[in-house]
Amino acid sequence: MNNEQGPVAVITGAASGIGRGLAEQAAQQGMRLVLADVDAQGLQALCAQLQGQGAAVVACVTDVADASQVERLRDVALARFGGVDLLFNNAGVMQTGYSWEITGRQWQRMLDINLLGVINGVRIFVPLLLEQGRPGHVINTASLAGFLSSPLMAPYNVTKQAVVALSETLHYELAMLGAPIGVSLICPGPVASEIMASNQAGDEAGQSFGALLDSSIRQGMTPQALAREVFAAIAEKRFWVLPHKDFKPALEQRVRSILDETNPQFQMFDLPGDAHAAR
Ligand SMILES: NC(=O)c1ccc[n+]([C@@H]2O[C@H](COP(=O)([O-])OP(=O)(O)OC[C@H]3O[C@@H](n4cnc5c(N)ncnc54)[C@H](O)[C@@H]3O)[C@@H](O)[C@H]2O)c1
Known about the structure:
Layout: E1 8-12, H1 17-28, E2 32-37, H2 40-52, E3 57-61, H3 67-81, E4 86-89, H4 104-132, E5 136-141, H5 154-177, E6 181-186, H6 204-218, H7 223-236, E7 240-241, H8 248-260
Parallel strand pairs: 1-2, 1-4, 2-3, 4-5, 5-6, 6-7
The structure holds nicotinamide-adenine-dinucleotide (NAD).
């Protein structure tokens, strides 16, 4: 990494929650920051806070679902800092509800932000990282939902499992090339954030499951604690970042059910209302 003036980190979804924690931790480590979000006000407030602490920061209002805006983000990073060392593809949103009740528009929004947003980051930044010919790192935010499919959040499960697949593939490809670029995949359980504010209205079961998720997320680990784990993993060049260890029995049970070809059983949460009947 370019240590002369601190590595350059680009972070999407930086204005809130996990992205904000990552930005604060990166600033503490003396990194130069390019912060992206659709929330212009939140972005400005964070920039002012970090600049007040002496960090070199540029804000770029960016919708990760729009490739031309992600290209502009890359160009802003190049114009301001001359290169990029770390890319955090972190922006994401939630949608709850029965798979068949979620509207086509809601499905498309989830695919566009949670999946295409990460694909755009990879497509637009990895060629730059390769061209630079110096060490770099791509960090994608998936979720425990990247391994375990909860009922009533199909688009989230689908997009996060795709982000796991994309990240593992990218890791293999960069290793094949012998490129000095690492990949890390953040797969947390509940982290205190505002993500449930992005959950759009839908069916009753989806709304009551949303309320359950909201309360679990509000009691989750802090973004600051997660960010410390993430930066430790980057320093170790570690791919998997799984801060919530209590999910491991559920994952083992899932792998066992695949290997034994027994039907999957969901065990992670108490499901609301009529969703119990579907279990
Ligand atoms: N909070 C959790 O419990 C949890 C657990 C696992 C994974 N995650 C993942 O962490 C990531 C960050 O979410 P969070 O929990 O911090 O939520 P958050 O809502 O607090 O922060 C997400 C940020 O992304 C921004 N954003 C939304 N759509 C965007 C777009 N199209 N382009 C750019 N920015 C956009 C929002 O404005 C917001 O500032 C997401 O990918 C989420 O799926 C969260």
